[in-house]
Amino acid sequence: QVQMVESGGGLVQAGGSLRLSCATGGIAYKLNTMGWYRQAPGKQREWVAAISSGGATNYADSVRGRFTISKDNVEQSLYLQMKRLKPEDTAVYYCNSIPDTGTWGQGTQVTVSS
């Protein structure tokens, strides 16, 4: 059964940092590209970062150079280190495979104050 539990969000001032974690089950990390997504109020969910089964990473232009995605294949955990946060990074952050499984966790709220 596919499941995702995101954590690590919070309230931070602009310029600050947060590290998000996602514990997953039912997704084969060695076979799938994994990713972080986010959904800001009133907007559609968007892709933020991806890490392939082999460890190659890719980022949306809006976060490249500030966010770092990583994973632990054994623990089936995904991480997102976020630095130099901006108010426009405020959103609920989700992890999932790419393409997504169709099942979503509850997400973790990130709020960046100006």
What does this structure look like?
By secondary structure, the protein is mainly beta. It starts with a strand and ends with a strand. The mean pLDDT is 96.
Summarize this structure as a short list of keywords or feature phrases:
10 strands, 114 residues, 4-stranded antiparallel beta sheet, single chain, 6-stranded mixed beta sheet
Globally, the shape reads globular
Largest sheet: 6 strands, mixed
SSE arrangement, N to C: EEEEEEEEEE
> What share of the residues lie within helices?
under 10%
Q: Which residues form runs of ≥5 with pLDDT under 50?
A: none
Short synopsis of the structure:
The chain has 114 residues and is mainly beta. Helices cover 0% and strands 52% of the residues. The chain has a 6-stranded mixed β-sheet with strand order 2-10-9-4-5-6, with no helix packed on it. It has a 4-stranded antiparallel β-sheet with strand order 1-3-8-7, with no helix packed on it.
Write the topology of this structure:
Elements: E1 3-7, E2 10-13, E3 18-25, E4 33-39, E5 46-51, E6 57-59, E7 67-72, E8 77-82, E9 91-98, E10 108-113
Parallel strand pairs: 2-10
Antiparallel strand pairs: 1-3, 3-8, 4-5, 4-9, 5-6, 7-8, 9-10
